[in-house]
Fold this sequence. Notes:
Blueprint: H1 21-28, H2 45-50, H3 63-66, H4 69-75, H5 85-141, H6 146-152, H7 158-168, E1 174-175, H8 177-183, E2 197-201, E3 215-218, E4 221-224, E5 232-236, E6 242-247, H9 252-267, E7 272-275, H10 277-286, H11 299-303, E8 311-316, H12 318-326, E9 335-339, E10 349-350, H13 354-363, E11 366-371, E12 374-379, E13 393-395, E14 398-402, E15 410-416, E16 419-432, H14 440-443, E17 456-463, E18 471-473, E19 479-482, E20 491-495, E21 498-503, E22 508-513, E23 518-521, H15 526-538
Parallel strand pairs: 6-7, 6-8, 8-9, 9-10
Antiparallel strand pairs: 1-2, 2-5, 3-4, 5-11, 11-23, 12-13, 12-22, 14-16, 14-20, 15-16, 15-19, 16-17, 17-18, 19-22, 20-21
Helix pairs in contact: 4-5
The structure holds nicotinamide-adenine-dinucleotide and adenosine-5'-triphosphate.
Organism: Acacia crassicarpa (northern wattle)
Family: Belongs to the NAD kinase family.
Catalytic activity: NAD(+) + ATP = ADP + NADP(+) + H(+)
Amino acid sequence: MSSSEEARINFNTNLSISLPSSSSSSSSSSSSSQGSLMPPSKLNPSEKANIPGAQSQNGIANSASLFSEMAVLELLQPPAQGLDDHLIEFSEALKTVAKALRQAAEGKASAQAEAAEWREKYKLERARNLQLEDKEKLNLENGSDVDDVRTYNPANKPALCDEQSNKCCAGHGICSHEVLWDGMPDSNSPVVRKASFKLSWCCKGEQSDQHKHVVSFERGNIITAERSSKQISLKWESCPRTVLVFTKPNSVSVQTLCAEMIRWLRDQKKLDIYVEPRVRGELMKGSSYFDFLESWEDDEEISRLHTKVDIVITLGGDGTVLWAASMFKGPVPPIVPFSSGSLGFMTPFYSEHYREYLESILKGPIGITLRKRLICQVVRNAAKNEHETEAPMLVLNEVTIDRGISSFLTNLNCYCDDSFVTCVQGDGLIMSTTSGSTAYSLAAGGSMVHHQVLGILFTPICPHSLSFRPLILPEHVSVRVEIPANTRNPAWASFDGKNRKRLEAGDALVCNMAPWPVPTACLVDSTNDFLRSIHEGLHWNLRKARSFDGPYDT
Ligand SMILES: NC(=O)c1ccc[n+]([C@@H]2O[C@H](COP(=O)([O-])OP(=O)(O)OC[C@H]3O[C@@H](n4cnc5c(N)ncnc54)[C@H](O)[C@@H]3O)[C@@H](O)[C@H]2O)c1
Ligand SMILES: Nc1ncnc2c1ncn2[C@@H]1O[C@H](COP(=O)(O)OP(=O)(O)OP(=O)(O)O)[C@@H](O)[C@H]1O
């Protein structure tokens, strides 16, 4: 196309097309503005007014409207006979313009539709968030936090709790009234004897910080509160009335201590006391004084213990704390663990000073470590339906899957939620709580973890691989360990070192964080007790100090 026959097309703002002089004069002679190829700026006002949509709101001509499809189609009528090749070329150019305009219009329409759809989504999301915020506010006003409701009220019976928690916690902590509720339906259950308490997260004098969300999202900023570093504190709201004492068996010194402590609790503190049937028998054999001791006969009674007992006392080592925890398949009352002799990892209280400690514990407040437990479910390959599943096991330390007496390597396929983690080839695998991190998991090379950290330790036992380092998974995952169908030998699961179960090919063990932690009383606070146990129990990083007996070069 020569410069004199130039057809210049500008799509950006104003469509301007320069025609060859001959056709230009013939077009401009037309009185109608329709089909005019003059730029709108060159038209007189009345001509402009005749162009549909030519005037946009801000006065700038809109090219898409200016060349409405109708107008363009009219222009695209077959050229009159005798028109030269330039006009054919020009008509081709206009076809391209029409196509571009059509595409632009379609694009705009679809963008508008999409925008409308997003606006609608935003409105819905906003409404949902407002609803959730209202719900959360209501929960806080009623003194329950989402976790706490799950932890203490699995059956969702909030009526009594809501009413009472306002009174007892005033919205500032975890209250025990749900436990009282558990006792209500049974008219014989001594509901009135169960002392109420509240748990709160202390933060070293910083009152305002107490009920921060763990993670909040305010005005686009994500903020986390350091809740895990704070000590949990238990305050009695009515006096504890009932104590349950567990003792290590086969120990004369523990039996003597137990008898002495029970006398003191009864005579000085006027408490009701539960002991295991074995202990009641032993004590009764020695003296009829112990006739007042209460005990239980069957599992049904054991399952109701948490509704009657205010405090659990353990006399023994860590094994006795594990034993006591295993008696509670749901909520656990606060445990005060006394060591008999050597200091245990979970037994910070020295038994020689039990009077002073118990005086102060019965008065409160008490520092508490909430020790998370794992709930473990064996899923049998042979089970025909879900009713055939075995009762789940709760562990405070760990669940172990090992090769038992077999001399073959175990092969364990492990999944975290729906993701494949690895195949353990070695002696076995430990899934441990953070409380158990200083027990078997530590011996297998796992890290020691502060008990207030939430997580599941995934520690292999003697893996036949140089690169298999232990993992720590977040507490909300579900870990599934499967025995492969082609395994050469069965595997064995044990729970806190007890209750071994044989796992056949195709069986699996599913492990989740349990909603019922074990609250243990602290001697000082969670951190101090933890550090003291690893210093004194393990002699952690004990090393002779270097001698500084001379000046060093600088
Ligand atoms: N190789 C090992 O280290 C190994 C082997 C098997 C079992 N265990 C541990 O033993 C526990 C069972 O304890 P038990 O007393 O009934 O049996 P137990 O009498 O055989 O005692 C095992 C030892 O583990 C200690 N222990 C228990 N829990 C602990 C903890 N949370 N932190 C630090 N040490 C702890 C006990 O104080 C005791 O010294 C299991 O849960 C397991 O963790 C360890
Ligand atoms: N009340 C109980 N009934 C039955 N068995 C118990 C009871 N308390 C503890 N055990 C078991 O007795 C064993 C020894 O208990 P524990 O660990 O408390 O004593 P320990 O070994 O002398 O203490 P430490 O761990 O400090 O050396 C453990 O296997 C534990 O499971």
